[in-house]
Amino acid sequence: MQGSALRLPIEIENTLLIRLPEGDAFASRKLARFLKDARELILMGATAGMAIMEAIQADIEGGNATRGVVLDATASEVVDAALDWITGYFRQSLRREGKTLLNSRFSAGYGDFDLENQQLMHRLLQMDRLNVTITENCLLVPEKSVTAVTGIV
């Protein structure tokens, strides 16, 4: 399991556009509403890695589908736990500044936060350094890889 995170200042314009440094931006009314009280955000990403995906595939192809399904579910939980660890780390660090994180995360593909936003998140988080690639359809590979955003308030 590996992860990456980035703390960035934001400006919200017209209840739709979340401006990031360097001219980057996300366009999403739901994300802007989610971040309405934030002036910074945390971008985060995590992956369970390719080895677990290969083990899952080998089990399914080798006739041990039950083990493959268990490994698949476990890999999903591990990646979610990695994002929990990242938010816990930042929450502890932010406490010294009198700030905290929002209680939930927002991922590309949810609501009107288009999956295409995952391209920007992948680039900013340098997910390629974690051996995570992104397809033309904006899906992360290996499959048990995720990105998310939360606000700092």
Mean pLDDT: 95
Q: What is CATH's topology name? A: Cobalamin-dependent Methionine Synthase, domain 1
The secondary structure category is alpha+beta
How many individual domains? 1
Question: Into which percentage range does the β-strand content fall?
Answer: 15-25%
- The CATH architecture: Roll
Which sheet architecture does the biggest sheet show? Answer: 3 strands, antiparallel
What key phrases describe this protein's structure?
153 residues; 3-stranded antiparallel beta sheet; globular; Cobalamin-dependent Methionine Synthase, domain 1; alpha+beta; 4 helices
Short account of what is shown:
The protein is an alpha+beta fold. The protein contains 4 helices and 8 strands, in the order ββββαβαααβββ.
Structural write-up:
The protein is 37% helix and 24% strand. It is an alpha+beta fold. It has a single domain (2-48, 82-152), classed as Roll (Cobalamin-dependent Methionine Synthase, domain 1), CATH 3.10.196. Helix 2 (50-61) runs antiparallel to helix 3. The radius of gyration is 17 Å and the shape is globular. The two termini are 28 Å apart. The mean pLDDT is 95.
Task: Describe the secondary-structure layout.
Elements lengths: L1 E8 L1 E3 L3 E3 L5 E3 L1 H6 L5 E8 L2 H12 L3 H31 L21 H8 L8 E2 L5 E2 L3 E8 L1
Antiparallel strand pairs: 1-5, 2-3, 3-4, 5-8, 6-7
Helix pairs in contact: 2-3
